[in-house]
Amino acid sequence: MQLLRAAMADLVLGVRCAGCEAPGRVLCAHCAAELGRRPAVRSPDPSPAALVRPTPVVPVSLTVYEGVVVPVLHAYKEESRTALAAPLGRLLAGAVGSVLDRRRTPGPVCLVPVPSRRSAVRARGFDAGATLARAAAAALRRRGVPARARPVLRVGRIADQTGLSAAERVENLAGAYDLRRRPSVGLVVVTDDVLTTGASAAEAVRVLTAGGRRPVAVVTVAATRRRRGHAWDESRPA
Asked: What pTM was estimated for this model as a whole?
């Protein structure tokens, strides 16, 4: 139903940029450039242990969760503007590509989205994380990278994360994900829309690692600043 409402709104009002409301495209060139301007290593503070041991899993995001990315992700997830998956996927593919270039490791890539709660999927009418991962994988294949999205994680019963501290989020998510099947061969990269405390990404990494496939990176559209005055080293490219 929500997908139908979103489609009707676009039909009646005309397609407008989710970032600035400019007419003509779901994401205008200016806003897309703003989102993909500074892909960099942005670690949560404090960083969950699962992202550090036994080997570091690099957290890369396209941008900081502020400014234009906020309304864009809200439109994609909460307004079910699924047409945003394609441009966001292209941008996310660029960040994944920067990780691959740094490792200089040829071979296939498996994108594993952090799983969404079933209630969220029902409310939105689509799986935002899996859709974004598929769009990114398709963009990587167009660049000649053999990539596939594999939603191999599933989520059990977890409480709403809203308002929880970093430590509470880690405790809330402990044991929340199951591995339905091992990812296919190749480098494994976990994907998501926003990295906040890193608890969700860390639990995904923990489960994948326990299943014998430790990811090399967590790549997200945006990352949230966790401490007042905390600044990332923006010179550290992905």
From this structure: 0.85
